[in-house]
Amino acid sequence: MANAPQCADTVGVEEEFLLVDTASGRTSVRAEAVLARLEDTELTQFHAELAGTQVEAATGPCTSITALGEALREARATLAKAAAEAGLGLLSRGTAPKPSKQPIVTHDNPRFRRVLDTYAGVVEHYEACGCHVHVGVPDRETGVRVLNHVRPWLPTLLAVSANSPDNGYASWRMVEQSRFPGSGVPPVFTGAADYDAHVARMVACGTLVDGAQSFWLARLSPKLPTVEFRVADAAATVEDAMLQAALSRALVHTACRGVQSRPVRDDVCAAAVWAASRYGLDGAGVDPWRECRVPATALLEELVEHVTPALAERGELTLVHDLVERRV
Questions:
Q1: What CATH code would you report for 4-327?
Q2: Selection from 166, 105, 122, 135 nearest residue 9 by Cα
Q3: What molecular function does GO assign, one term (predicted)?
Q4: pLDDT per position as a tens digit, 272-290
Q5: In this structure, are strands 218-220 and 226-233 parallel, antiparallel, or unpaired?
């Protein structure tokens, strides 16, 4: 219990954005032109993505959700200015309403080329954007315990974030992401060695290009001492990104407090992810324990209740209630 604040103290967010031609509304393969106008700051670093139609802004670690929100606003304003100087608009959405008609993978990055060679048509036109939340953990063993704890809650985080409406789905991004091998809720791991062995097997089988890659909706970061939540669509607003960050950190904090999650079936978790992508918060979700359909908003209420002690401990309960009210 005493180590809980250390376990979940820092939080950072990586936001992926689409670059769009202001005249046609189509995504534009001009990320390099935008990135050339940017310099990293103490708060944020800017990165290229696999698709030349995308750019990423990654905040540094923050201890306050309010401070994180300020960093996100500054990053968005900086990116929007650079995009405008290049004659482009900046769009925060899970998928492109009007995708580029050009090939989108144009980088000389060798790893990006390996990804394209491995997954072929799955990534040739993949312009999906996410809001990735990193929460600090003291070690990888703790990180694996956190992953096991958050499994049942990942579909609800997706439903809250749904921001890529297309083809009748609230999150078409998740449908596109499901085409990658191993996508979805991660399996239960016995520890860090089991986690690493699973990744190594998938590399040996050829379904992952290297040990730094996985398609799970939550994973151990390959570079940072964090658990990385990769479930959310790109956030429509800064407030939506703040909500994802606050709920994700509270889930980590709850796991570190020793609260146990009841076991859930893998196939029911997959059903819950599908329901979240199909309906978002506007329809039925799947309760992973009762194994039946329930209102998605009821699952969100259960999530907030589950993490209420962690939120209250950090003085964030009122903030999260306000953010939830804005979202629903």
A1: 3.30.590.20
A2: 135
A3: glutamate-cysteine ligase activity
A4: 999 999 999 999 999 999 9
A5: antiparallel
Contact 94, 83 (CB under 8 A): no
- Helix residue ranges per DSSP H, 103-187: 110-119, 121-124, 140-150, 154-161, 172-177
Write the pLDDT tens digit of every residue in 219-233.
999 888 999 999 999
User: What is the C-alpha R_g of the chain?
Assistant: 19
Taking a C-beta distance cutoff of 8 angstroms, is the pair 37, 85 a contact? yes
Give percent of the chain with pLDDT exceeding 70. Answer: 97
* Contact predicate 211/222, CB 8 Å: yes
**For the chain, which residues make up each domain, given as ranges?**
4-327
Mean pLDDT of the chain: 94
CA dist., res. 206 & res. 154, Å (int): 26
User: What sign for the dihedral angle of Cα 317, 135, 148, 323?
Assistant: positive
- Residues 218 and 148 sit within 8 Å (Cβ to Cβ): no
Prediction pTM value: 0.96
Q: Scanning the structure block, which residue is given the tokens 């953990």?
A: 137
Question: What CA–CA distance (Å, rounded) separates 4 from 181?
Answer: 34
Q: Give strand ranges (E) for 5-83.
A: 11-21, 44-48, 54-59
Widest pairwise Cα distance in the chain: 56
